[in-house]
Amino acid sequence: MPWHDTTVWSMGINTDRRKFLTTAGAATVYKMTAAGPQRKAASVNGEIGLGFIGSGIRGTGLIDDFKRVTGVRMIGVCDVYNGCLERAKEQIDPGIFTTKDYEQIIARKDVDAVVIATPDHLHKKMVLDALEAGKHVYIEKPMTWNLDEGPKIIAAEKASGKLVMVGSQHKTTALTAKARELVKSGALGKVNMIRMSNHRNNAQGAWKYPVPPDASPNTIDWERFLGERPKRAFDARVFFQWRCWWEFSGGVATDLFVHLLTWLHEVMDVKAPVSAASFGGIVRWNDGRNVPDMMESLFEYKEGFTANLYVNLANSAPPRGNTIMGDAGTLVDEMRRLVVYPEPVDHDVQSYGTYQWPKALRAAYYESRGWRADGRPKEPLPPPEKPKEITVERGPSHAEHFIISIRDGKPSRENGEEGHYAAGAAHVANLAYRKGKRMKWDCRTNKVNES
Asked: 31-171+396-422: which CATH architecture?
């Protein structure tokens, strides 16, 4: 089955780096992105009615996330497995409306917005149907299953006047906003390389989830799960471990790279890479899956830096976190804190580089640099700058941002275009991996070509 149909960035103002790092705990400023006209929800008693489409592992987490948000009414839950619907009743309320048909959720007049957390191959149709029905949409990342789907969702979003928000939670944290501010300030100098990783080495991390003992065609609507995919025999393992197959997922790139790419695009204030090359394979979890469990991709950005993203599902060792390297400093986002490591000052007085010189020439060289003839500075050098740890106060959650945007008519904090650029970069990385070639991507036309 074909898995894919498509054969003035600036470092910002020039501020004093030392002064900025001293005051780096100041309040952050969030970027607001527009995606066409937005309308407030037709809420009841000021509350926004939510319907959940997909109540699996991720959907369960999103239900908990939205339960913490004030001004929300839980209207109904859709899933094609009986067990998920039973658990949703336990999680929300025994009387909550449940169904296996997502169209029953979007048809309800008391549902203002839907939260979609289904397998990737079902995203596009559900988002388009929900927008056509006049619902705001929160769509879990990755927004799309393949590269061609992104522009269709973007067009529908703009035409509908409804809010679309993609669920890459790290994008809207206060820590991410501070990292963006640091980069724009020039505190790192000119950024040249970014390295991001995600390692884990266990069955759960490799999506080898247990299959519940009651899984059968009687408890699972297999046809609805397949959607527009070719008919195939019922397979409970495929249903619960769908991320392991190209037919339903984009593997590590769309499941894990997309989180990293969304953060990268937000912090660096860029749209998308212009090319990608990928390497990897199945190194441990040779269990019938066809997506790699180890993959490394190198992305090229026209703004003058490269990004190296890698996932290893066969090793759990550090490094962890995101590292942005500039010629004046390095920023490490450790998910709970930011640390800036200033670059040491290069006085360009070389001892190693002059080892082969005669003693007199070396002495003259040192003295010409203003140092002593024995290669030592005449005055003590200033101590090197120490790493700076930066903390910020917690802001609204991603789920809260979605409700705020609907309630107040504000732009989406992660609209369809942004979701497409992040998912699209992952799709291009997958193309590069599957073809074994570097792929060039023009995100304006959505065209991909072999380099």
From this structure: 3-Layer(aba) Sandwich (3.40)
